[in-house]
Amino acid sequence: MTARTPRLSRLRRLTPGRGEDGAGRSGRRRGATPKVVALGGGQGLSASLAALRRITGDLTAVVTVADDGGSSGRLREELGVLPPGDLRKALAALCGDDDWGQTWARVIQHRFQSEGDLHGHAVGNLLIVALWEQLGDPVQALDLVGRLLGAQGRVLPMSAVPLELQALVRGHDPARPEDVDTVRGQATVALTPGEVLSVQVVPSAPPAVPEAVAAVLDADWVVLGPGSWFSSVIPHLLVPELLDALVETKARRVLSLNLAPQPGETEGFSPQRHLEVLARHAPKLALDVVLADEAAVPDRESLADAAKRFGAAVELAPVARQDGSPKHDPELLAAAYDRIFRMHGRIGPWR
What we know:
Blueprint: H1 5-14, E1 35-40, H2 42-52, E2 58-63, H3 70-79, H4 85-93, H5 99-109, H6 123-135, H7 138-149, E3 154-157, E4 164-170, E5 180-184, H8 186-190, E6 195-202, H9 210-217, E7 221-224, H10 229-233, H11 240-248, E8 252-256, H12 271-281, E9 289-293, H13 300-308, E10 313-317, H14 330-343
Parallel strand pairs: 1-2, 1-7, 2-3, 7-8, 8-9, 9-10
Antiparallel strand pairs: 4-5, 4-6
Helix pairs in contact: 1-9, 2-4, 2-14, 4-5, 6-7, 9-11, 12-13
């Protein structure tokens, strides 16, 4: 038990318990749908949210804030704000399939093409940052954007301050393949040609957003991944209050593995190696289920052994698109999550 536990206890007292009379933001009774929190960033989290919104009316995304590339990086550097890009992608993924939802999803994802300063900026990034400046509260601003879009869930940053990702990388410089260097910046870490050994965030021990911690503590299920392993998934475990909540929550925890190694960041990684890396960064974390695409696991026994170290069972299911691309199919992924939620027990009366 750490010194942060009393803070977590206070946050738990502020959230409605599973046996109390509370409805989710969707207006549905808590007994009618599982309360799910998904953690990650970028395209991986978007894929998970697009699937999860199909099976639950009570969904919260907790998003990494270490991006320093593209439009987000420019806004972050110029204005000192949280990088809005991954938050924008999460909001777009939560838009409904009706005309309103899909129109707004396209609008906030739209990037300007010009010869001037607006080139490459996403409309949604500018909208989010404008509301941050107007309201002075990142959570309130994101909630307001979600209402405008009709988002089927809530989006929260994992920390209230922008973070810098730093990694120890062997062979970052191909001319020195055995040397270990410190590589700074999410965009640089994601594209390194070397072997990432470990990551950390600066500032160290950053403050978590209280609403994100409370959501994890009050969840029925927590979903971690898929996504860029070192730059989108593991950073959540480097925010002490958030890690404490993940360790302490009574929710069941499912880890969703990627369909293929990511060029640069996890080049050559087996599915079990993803778990080994996760364990090094968060040795106290327990899992209940590890979800993987059945076609992406050549050695099922080794993956099962790696999952056992977390106390987890392995669930294999076809979750990839049929076009051969390393992308998740939202309907297939939704079916896999739904089966896991039904077959691996549940917290509270939502069944």
